[in-house]
Every structure is written in C-alpha cells, then in structure tokens.
Specification:
Layout (H helix, E strand, L loop, with lengths): L1 E7 L3 H6 L2 H8 L3 E5 L19 E5 L9 E5 L5 E3 L13 E6 L2 E7 L7 H22 L4 E7 L23 H13 L3 E2 H5 L8 E2 L5 H4 L2 E2 L2 E5 L7 E6 L11 E5 L6
Parallel strand pairs: 1-2, 7-8
Antiparallel strand pairs: 1-14, 2-4, 3-4, 5-6, 6-7, 8-12, 9-12, 10-11, 13-14
Length: about 260
Amino acid sequence: MTKIITCNTNGIRAASRKGFFEWMAKESPDVVCIQETKAQIDQLTDPIFSPNGYHCYYNDAQKKGYSGTAIYSKVKPIKVTTSLGWDPADSEGRYIQADYKGLSVISLYLPSGSSGDEALQRKYRFMDNFLEHLRALRRKRREFIICADWNICHKEIDLKNWRPNRKNSGFLPEERAWLDTLYDEVGYVDSFRLINDAPEEYTWWSNRGQAWAKNVGWRLDYQVITPNLADKVKAASVYREERFSDHAPQIMEYDLKITV
C-alpha cells in the first residue's frame, strides 16, 4: 500500500512551527506534495525541511515569500521536472513532477482568481495551458497522480455555501466546466470521490469569521489520477485534528508500489 499526502501549507516555515513535520513523521507517507512553500531554498537550511528518510525537492518562485511547490519521497525518483516551459508556471514555481517506474507524481498549485478580474483572466490562461499539458500526459505510456490545490470546487457537495458562491472564483460555471472537460473528455478521475462521497469533506476554510469552527469550507485540494489507477484507490480522508494552514492535508492510499 502506498500513502500519498497533498497539502497547501500556506508557508512551509509557518506550517513547520505548527507541527506539520512531526505529524508527517507519524503518518509516514510514501510521498508528500506541498503547495505554497512561500520560501526560497536558501531559507530552508534547517534539517526539519529535509525530513529524515525522504528525498526532498523544492521548486521556488522567483518572487520571495510567494507560491512554490515541493515533493518529499521515500523512493528516490528517476527524474524530477520543475519546468513546463511557460509562465507563470515556471517563474512562480507552481509545478514539480517526480517520475518513477511507470508512474509520475505531480505537485501543482493552480492560481487563484479571487482577487479581481485580472487575476481571474490570469487563472483562465493558466488553465488553458495546463489542460493542454494534461492532454499530453495522457498520451504517455505511464500513470499519473496529480496532487494539487486546484482552487476550484467541482460540485455543490464540495463547498458549504454553494448558492452565494456561484458568482465567485472557485465555483464559477467556467471553472467547473473546465473540470468537467478534465474528467469527462480528457479522462482523468477525482480519486477522492471514487470512494468518499460524504458531504462537508472540505480542505480549505477562510480565516474570516468562524469558518473553521463551523466547518464552512471548500474542497479545493485533491488528487487527480489517470483512469488505470481507479481500482487502486483504497482510502481517502482529510486530516482535521490539527491545523497547520488554512488548508488541511488530504490523504490517499493506493494499492500500488512505487519503484524505480
């Protein structure tokens, strides 16, 4: 069995102070995908950022304190890719891919479009470019697990207050249609919903009001997989006992073995 965790830490240094790495050691996942590290590699010299027993790979944004992704893996990958060849994916460190035998695991941080129309248009451009990349991946003779803060909820079940949010980025018809295309046309699968169709399984909560306490959340973080992995999904959960970030870790277990 292979355990994979994805988590937007909203600053890996802040998450470490809140006990993320101690929790991670207890969970002992095979792969961890991080989004929003918000740090340059030279700011992560403390041994805590190179967890014992893991090969650690960071992709920093050019802008300090912004974006950034990482992968921690017990098995050393054959190859690690940090460039898609276009911005802002590359300049903002939004993508990192670890390749193993027949399998790749990706950590992705999709832009938010919630700060205004310019940000939303930027998000749409990223989505258009990334969809072409996802189509290209499907043509490769390997399987993929894409762990991401997608910054989109797909269905009404995926956020508490879906009615008033239909005009807000994260639950716009155009964003939801993009996920429809990803699943229905390109053929990817939302691994979490294969075996967990429970409501209120959220992964992000606003820091405003009592969103966390009242579980007024959004399911923005999930692991999208190629269809041949669908029957390998064995467990799906969100960890909420401790709070390391405004996002919660999303945990999947697969009946497969990562090898090189």
